[in-house]
Amino acid sequence: MKTLTVELGERSYPIFIGQDLLKNAELVAPYVSGTQVLIVSNTTVAPLYLEQVEALFSDYEVRCVVLPDGEKYKTLEVLNKIFDVAIASKFDRKCTFVALGGGVIGDMTGFAAASFQRGVNFIQMPTTLLSQVDSSVGGKTGVNHPFGKNMIGAFHQPECVIIDTNVLNTLEDRELSSGLAEVIKYGLINDTPFFDWLEKNIPAILARDPDVLSEAIERSCQNKADIVAKDEKENDLRALFNLGHTFGHAIESGMGYGNWLHGEGVSAGTLQAVYLSALLGDLSAEDKVRIAAIFEQAKLPLLPPSVKDMSNEKFLDLMASDKKVQAGTIRLVLLKSIGEAYVTGDYPAEMLAQTLTEYR
Questions:
Q1: Which of the 8 DSSP states describes residue 261?
Q2: Cα 151 to Cα 153: distance, rounded to the nearest angstrom
Q3: Which domains does the chain have, with CATH numbers?
């Protein structure tokens, strides 16, 4: 087992990475407060791992909530199902919520924990590659709104993150590739050696080599933990994690939540950001080719979907609903080179329009 730490002073917490961690009750016990535990999962993950995780809390009063699986259910209406069980079970302010699932479950459980009785503890047990390397770390929680992804939420840090790499053996190939979009992101924004390593090791990750997977997860989590420690609430540096996300969220929303996986939207959105970076004269032709090649190697889409009613105007309107918009300006994460990203709202509007027209 490997242990990383998200350094946030008194609110610092560990990330545990290893095999069979969902069977280790001694590992979990120090991070449970009170005597009541609410486990939140979904209809895909619960049949595989819920009974196993319930056994970790045999000395506690345990309740379970199994939500429908999918991004389209990441709503306030479905979130209420968590509150219904917690309130009906008379859970108190010392209870602990446990998120057992992918990014949707982690985000919703975290937001429920942030909101229930104005804040209770929670533990992340991510079961997809994407949630293991990204959404489970850093305390971003929330739900979607029809007009924008993750527009309603809170920053609420977990007590710990328990990453059992064995659960990836039951993950669908498409979901594994989706997670790779976030892994590649870390190499692109600030870790060139990691990007170089990924170029050589994507096939081994797709083949689910346990040692290679573990290293990819560890290096991704370390990258995220380092930046979160410096900028917990995304005032500046943490915004770099949004490479490809403003474009990607527009794709997800425009397609209808769930038709494209988050990592698929991020992949195509990153290539749009790459195209714009090259138009601006920042990114070299060589880097542009390498970036497209690694996403293709990861079996991810390079182009946004061709949808008849997805006009440039609609695309821009969806981008304008993004959380990163400030004073009406769409702020984008762009690249100067592989390993060097920056955030800007200072780009010619016609070049963004050209990107949406030509990179489709």
A1: -
A2: 7
A3: 2-170 (3.40.50.1970), 174-358 (1.20.1090.10)
